[in-house]
Structures are given as structure tokens and as C-alpha cells.
Amino acid sequence: MTDGALMAIGEQLIPAQSGYEAYREYEDTFGDEVLPATLEWKPVVAFIYNPDSSILVPITAEDGRLDRFAVRLPNGKVYTSHETFFESVDEYRTDLAKELKKANAKSA
Length: 108
Known about the structure:
The protein is of the alpha+beta class. Helices cover about 25% and strands about 30% of the residues. It is built from 2 helices and 8 strands, in the order H-E-E-E-E-E-E-E-E-H. The chain has helices at about 5-10, 90-105, and strands at about 10-15, 20-25, 40-50, 55-60, 65, 70, 80, 85. Strands 1, 2, 3, 4, 5, 6, 7 and 8 form an 8-stranded antiparallel sheet that branches. A hairpin with a 7-residue loop joins strand 3 and strand 4. The radius of gyration is 15 Å and the shape is globular. It starts with a helix and ends with a helix. The mean pLDDT is about 85.
């Protein structure tokens, strides 16, 4: 079995309660991308629990399982696939803008 198949055996699917939303992040290389005026949050329908991870991976009806993401909790806090945590969407957006600026500076 491949490593991915072995990992999938330990994963569990957990239905999401209402109020959880996910944002699909850009890839590692942003290129000349700009941060959108508003982030497109989509309702999470389920989460994947893996005992080897400290975070739940979101699944949306539109995008399926997300690999690079941010999850907005019903209380407004945000966590990301990079295992970073923010008190608000504004704090997350500020961090995302900094990362985008750094990536664009490297590609220039």
C-alpha cells in the first residue's frame, strides 16, 4: 500500500455543524496574484480527522477536500492548513496579504 492509502485508513469523516466555513488558499507560488477584495468563504459540509494531525481538514460541497485552506469557526476565529491560528478573519487576511507580498517580491 502507498503511504497515502495507509494514512486514509486512519482518517474519519465527521459531519460539520453549521457555521463553519472554508477558504481555499493559493498555491505555494502566488505569481503576480493579488488578494481579492473579499475572501470567498464556502460552507464546510464535513471534516476529515486524522489522528496524526492537530487540525481537522475541511470538505466543501463545491471544492471537495481542501489541501491548502483556512477554516473560519462560528466564533470568528480562523485556523489554517499551516497550523496557524488567528483571532479573526481580519488578522488572517493581514497575514495572507503579507505572505502574498513576500511571494510577489521573490518572483520579481
